[in-house]
Backbone:
């Protein structure tokens, strides 16, 4: 009899643990649904070019236009490029903790780009983000703090009104593509830019970057770099002695 009671207690404990885990997994998609709804409301959602499913209580957020989820209902990709979004980006997007790709390029977004983690810490961050595309908007302010998104491979922020220095963190060791052209960025080129091992293409044209582009930097560029566009800036000096044989654009 005692053995049967013990088995029953264990079975009940397993059932309770499973129920608790299920409840927890249901809470996260609810949080992400609210985060997406906040984006919809802050960017004139009713006027989007395609808003199929958005803000509908009858449709899973994973079926909303531009949203991709994993099997647990966590948002992994958000693609709303050229979709007439107008307004500012809500920090609630940081609640999409599983987000790996965000493309909101070619819209009418304004205001600053939020950091990829909350300054007060906590769970809200884009630690899994690999691709960030916000080009072709009217975003202003300085470059966002991307220090929490160490998996980033592509950062595309071209054609905005961003200012300040190129203050990206050197921890972005997976970065392959960096497009910051057609902004108002100033200051000098950061020295770590020459050392990123995965960097393939850098476009910094049409900014206000000054200083020199030393030959020593070019000779230590990552082995995969094939294109660097720094036209229409305020750079000075010569490139004598620099090995540019690998570059298809300079």
Residues:
């Amino acid at each position: 009899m005692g053995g049967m009671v013990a088995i029953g207690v264990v079975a009940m404990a397993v059932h309770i643990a499973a129920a608790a885990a299920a409840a927890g997994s249901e809470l996260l998609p609810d949080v992400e649904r609210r985060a997406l709804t906040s984006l919809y409301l802050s960017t004139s959602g009713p006027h989007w070019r395609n808003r199929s499913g958005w803000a509908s209580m009858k449709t899973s957020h994973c079926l909303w236009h531009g949203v991709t989820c994993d099997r647990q209902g966590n948002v992994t990709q958000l693609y709303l490029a050229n979709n007439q979004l107008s307004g500012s980006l809500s920090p609630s997007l940081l609640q999409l903790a599983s987000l790996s790709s965000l493309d909101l390029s070619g819209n009418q977004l304004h205001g600053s780009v939020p950091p990829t983690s909350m300054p007060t810490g906590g769970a809200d961050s884009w630690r899994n983000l690999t691709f960030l595309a916000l080009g072709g908007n009217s975003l202003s302010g300085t470059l966002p703090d991307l220090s929490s998104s160490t998996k980033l491979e592509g950062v595309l922020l071209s054609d905005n009104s961003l200012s300040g220095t190129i203050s990206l963190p050197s921890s972005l060791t997976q970065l392959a593509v960096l497009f910051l052209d057609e902004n108002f960025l100033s200051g000098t080129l950061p020295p770590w830019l020459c050392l990123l091992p995965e960097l393939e293409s850098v476009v910094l044209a049409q900014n206000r970057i000054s200083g020199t582009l030393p030959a020593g930097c070019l000779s230590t560029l990552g082995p995969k770099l094939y294109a660097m566009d720094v036209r229409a800036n305020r750079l000075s000096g010569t490139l004598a002695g620099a090995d540019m044989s690998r570059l298809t654009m300079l």
